[in-house]
Amino acid sequence: MIELRRRVQTDPASIAFAQLAEECRRTGANEEAVAICRAGLERYPGYLSARVTLGRALIELGDLDAAEVELGRVVSDVPTNLAAIRGLAEIFQRRGRMSEALEYYRRALDLARHDPDLEDTVERISQVVAPAPAPPPPSFHVAVEDLFDFDTLIQQLGGVADAAPPSATEPANTVQAQALEPPSPQVLEPSVLTSIELKDDDTDSLAVMERELRELDEQRARDELAARELLAIRRRDAGVAALELWLAAVMADRQRHGA
Q1: CB 131, CB 139: distance < 8 Å
Q2: What pTM does this model have?
Q3: CB of 62 closer than 8 Å to CB of 31
Q4: Total domain count for the chain?
Q5: What does the alpha-carbon distance between residue 30 and residue 60 come to, in Å, rounded to a whole number?
Q6: For burial by CB atoms within 10 Å, which of 17, 60, 109, 122 has the most?
């Protein structure tokens, strides 16, 4: 270092300033390293290795903003400069901006594959940025039988299918009243879903559970509506069939009396 210092003092324009500044930085003389680099970069602004030394010395002095400017300029000119990339990664790590630090550490690892220090750093920061996923929330297995009162539906539908046709002598108004009589509403028993109460909680798992229950209730309502529509169609068809039988019986009776 003594010889380097003598050379720079003898010839201030010597490019040996970069090597002298790096030796100062390695020995902990970061302030002197910064001063030597800035003086030399005034003459040689494109000397990137000296700018890297300047940025790393500024990091050690805690001047992260100035260090980011110097190292960012290097990476802008040479995107594969490993020392500058690692320096930027360290800057973001010191600031607590782990996502950006991880991005630069990964870039450095792409350039220096199988570097154990970089691999360990990337793994540690990855666990901070993207922790292990939480276990999935418990799922509710609801049987289809719990959603509907199938016994009631079967009785309603079966009652229409088993209805006996009217006799020829049955009065017309009686047949019409039976055919067109609106079905009595059947109230289905509440399912197990309506008895489940969720406690207020902001966790993702309970939010997912609440959404699943809400979707099951909506599906149950749609299925109930479809069952009612089917029942109405069956009753309407049964009424039409009853009227047709009654008209046929009336026509047959008139033909007999007319004959």
Answers
A1: no
A2: 0.50
A3: no
A4: 2
A5: 7
A6: 17
